[in-house]
Amino acid sequence: MSRYSVSITVKNINQLSMTGRTRNQERILTLLQTLNRAISAQDIYVQLRNGSQSIGLATVYRALEALKLEGVVQVRTLASGESLYSSVQQDKHHLTCLQCGKSIPINECPVHELEIQLHQFHKFKIFYHTLEFFGLCNQCQELEPASIGVK
Ligand SMILES: [Zn+2]
Ligand SMILES: [Zn+2]
């Protein structure tokens, strides 16, 4: 009679990997690590679908939410309001042009040291930080002021 609990345990093992992630979470994390760039939830959904893996868009959002709280995925919101997801390994920052929307990656991280200090002072476990610069790119600065905002 005590055997019935065994089947429940086995079912849980099938759903969760060694890391406690679901298979969908693992798929998405692997995809983000492979791509090595930020991508929208919609594009993640399309990519996984193209790989003939059946997954729903709502599942993609749920998995991203869980991965975010785990500290392995980060979100970057563009000026357009679109959210881009990437794996957390990348400590990358951008200069974003408000006129043409171009995003220029920068290689330095001026807050890396600060992050270590904050962690020590507040005992806060920092997963990642965001830092973005907004303005006009070189090309857009050359446009006549009157033509800015007019296509
Ligand atoms: Zn521009
Ligand atoms: Zn940084």
Can you walk me through this structure?
- The protein is of the alpha+beta class.
- It has two domains: 1-90, Winged helix-like DNA-binding domain superfamily/Winged helix DNA-binding domain (Arc Repressor Mutant, subunit A, Orthogonal Bundle); 91-151, Dna Ligase, domain 1 (2-Layer Sandwich), CATH 3.30.1490.190.
- 42% of the residues lie in helices and 17% in strands.
- It is built from six helices and six strands.
- It has helices at residues 4-15, 23-35, 41-50, 57-70, 112-122, 138-141; strands at 39-40, 73-77, 83-87, 93-97, 103-106, 132-135.
- The protein has a three-stranded antiparallel β-sheet.
- Helix 2 (23-35) packs across helix 4 and helix 3 (41-50) packs across helix 4.
- The radius of gyration is 21 Å and the shape is flat.
- The protein starts with a helix and ends in a 10-residue tail after the last helix.
- The model is unreliable at 1-15 (pLDDT under 50).
- The protein binds zinc ion (ZN) (2 copies).
- One zinc ion binds next to helix 6.
